Amino acid sequence: MSTYVIGDLHGCHVEFISLLETINFNPAHDTLWLVGDLINRGPGSLACLQEAKALGSAVRCVLGNHDFHLLVVARGGGKLKKNDTLDDILASPQREALLDWLQSQPLAVQEGNTLMTHAGVLPSWSAEQALALSGEVQEALQGESAGSFLTQLFGNQPDRFREDLEGLDRLRCIVNVFTRMRFIDAQEHLDFAAKEGLDSAPTGFAPWFQFARQDDLHILFGHWAALEGRTPNAKINVQGLDTGCVWGGSLTAMNLDTGERTSVPSLQGGR
């Protein structure tokens, strides 16, 4: 019985299957953690979503920003972007079942002292708080006003979480932390402009994992392909899993029990 954590799939279905075969993944007794952004940019978005859903209870998944983008387009009136590869999902006869499954996923998953989110977690948030905030968003996604929530989800404000935030501002900020965060400042303001490597940090900002925590929580995240799975000068126990498969890098799985990493090369040719 092993637990494997796999970085951002981004519709790279052939590589996904190759990686599962390489690690001899068996859903009868192994568990698969998916760090979000299952879809978009790569050529097999529909197949990735179908595969993840079909694995049933063997999979634990968190939502990423591209997963939210699909939900906003499908159910919140959003528009497709130029480089999106979501048409096959939107046109699928399984569309509603797949969207329902995706919309039911959390933003944070915990097992023991390990917490997985798509982009990371604020240094001031305990695992308990992170799970509670994830639960607030899940409740909104499952509620009668889910469509309205998705319609108003996107935006950069507020750029700092406060416990007294309410309503859509609170939910938007929670989603942005869990799915879009890269650089923060000492007061935990989020920057959304810089998306490249560590040298793209705005003045006064640093990667969220270079700020100390009050606990020894083990954090797993994806989202930041430019890091290539590395977390230089981390002040916390953290593992980056996005090794940029859709951009021509590789797709990586980590054995959660041993820390061993296994990668398969991208077939995307440096898209």
TrEMBL record:
Xref: InterPro entries: ApaH (IPR004617), Calcineurin-like_PHP (IPR004843), Metallo-depent_PP-like (IPR029052)
CDD domains linked to this entry: MPP_ApaH (cd07422)
Gene Ontology terms for molecular function: bis(5'-nucleosyl)-tetraphosphatase (symmetrical) activity
Catalytic reactions on record: P(1),P(4)-bis(5'-adenosyl) tetraphosphate + H2O = 2 ADP + 2 H(+)
Chain ranges passing through the membrane: none
Native species: Vreelandella lionensis
Keyword Hydrolase among record annotations: yes
Keyword Cytoplasm (UniProt): no
E.C. numbers: 3.6.1.41
Task of the protein: Hydrolyzes diadenosine 5',5'''-P1,P4-tetraphosphate to yield ADP.
Family: Belongs to the Ap4A hydrolase family.
Entry keywords, A to Z: Hydrolase
Domain Calcineurin-like phosphoesterase: 1-120
Name listed for the protein in its UniProt record: bis(5'-nucleosyl)-tetraphosphatase (symmetrical)
